Amino acid sequence: MILAIPDWQGRVSPVFDVAEQVLLIDLDREDHGRRWEGHGRRRMESLKTTAPHERAQRLAELGIDVLVCGAISWPLEALLTANGIRVIPLICGEVGEVVRAFCDGALEKERFAMPGCRRKKRHARNRCRRGGDGSIIEETP
Q: Which among 38, 141, 128, 50 is positioned nearest to 91, based on CA atoms?
């Protein structure tokens, strides 16, 4: 499985649509990503375009299975999903901690939720976005 996380100074990039690079982590079955920091198991890829269809196509070409990211536009998320990429949005934190939480099945913890975005376990995923006045608007699809 290849996990992708947009990286900005060692943290999950806050907005995937404009992230300049993505960290690819090969999570094999033997170590479940525990040793993700070495041995050729990770590499950084540049994302040179912000065009949603080109960005989705690039991630599909890279063989990404799962994208863990911060905010993402709904059209880009739909394109990624249509390309067979599972998207886990609204995540923030240090990349290493996020990878470990993903491997441990603990990304649902509040500490990884973007500020202003609540997530409910075992319910429909809450989506949040900013309104025209900058206020947080939460919606459930």
A: 128
Residue with token string 């500490």: 111
Q: What distances in angstroms separate CA 120 from CA 2, 15, 36, 85, one per listed residue? A: 26, 21, 28, 22
User: Is-contact 67 16, C-beta < 8 A?
Assistant: yes
Q: Are 95 and 23 in contact (CB under 8 A)?
A: yes
Give the model's pLDDT for residue 89.
95
**Secondary-structure breakdown of the chain: helix, strand, coil percentages, each rounded to the nearest 5:** 25, 30, 50
pLDDT per residue over 91-101, tens digit each? 999 999 999 99
Which segments within the chain are labelled E, that is strand? Answer: 2-8, 11-12, 21-26, 42-46, 66-68, 86-88, 127-130, 136-139
